[in-house]
Write a structure and sequence with these properties.
alpha+beta, 160 residues, 6-stranded antiparallel beta sheet, 4 helices, single chain, Thiol Ester Dehydrase, Chain A
């Protein structure tokens, strides 16, 4: 009989602050979208985007542009990979783990749009399905302000 999995350790405040700065401030497109980290755990990340006029499509009044949804889900998938890598290397100092993200890049992305992006704010969730030595696979969700599922996504990222 196998022994139960040990729950992943919580991240240090220094690691969370550094990852938040990279994700929200140093990645210009995330900053433009207003994408913020709401929760950062080793197994799941949650973000938020508030509706703003510049995020709406040309002809779709009060509907979030599909490109914003896609970019947001891609960014959250990448953040989930960063969290998983950070959790895998908890034996390293927080700043050393933050330097591991320089080679992270999307190699495949699929988005399914289920409902229009209408609402005052949106929640984005992502989790890593598999973290290999070279490729990570993620699953993402995009939810409306009422908690309804608007879009889903899967992605693969190069991690080496």
């Amino acid at each position: 009989m196998s022994k139960p999995a040990t729950p992943p350790a919580a991240f240090e405040p220094e690691f969370i602050a550094g990852l938040r700065q990279i994700f929200e401030e140093r990645i210009p497109f995330n900053h433009l979208l207003g994408l913020k980290i709401a929760r950062l755990e080793p197994t799941q990340v949650v973000g938020r985007i508030d509706m703003r006029p510049e995020l709406v499509g040309h002809f779709a009044y009060n509907r979030l542009h599909g490109g914003v949804i896609s970019a947001g889900l891609d960014a959250m998938g990448g953040l989930a990979v960063m969290a998983a890598i950070g959790a895998r290397h908890m034996d390293e100092a927080p700043m050393a783990r933050l330097h591991r993200f320089t080679r992270l890049g999307t190699i495949d992305l699929r988005i399914d749009y289920l409902r229009p992006g209408i609402g005052s704010h949106f929640e984005l969730r992502a989790e890593v399905l598999r973290l290999g030595s070279r490729v990570a696979t993620t699953r993402m969700e995009f939810l409306g302000s009422d908690g309804g599922l608007l879009s889903t996504g899967t992605a693969a990222y190069i991690v080496s």
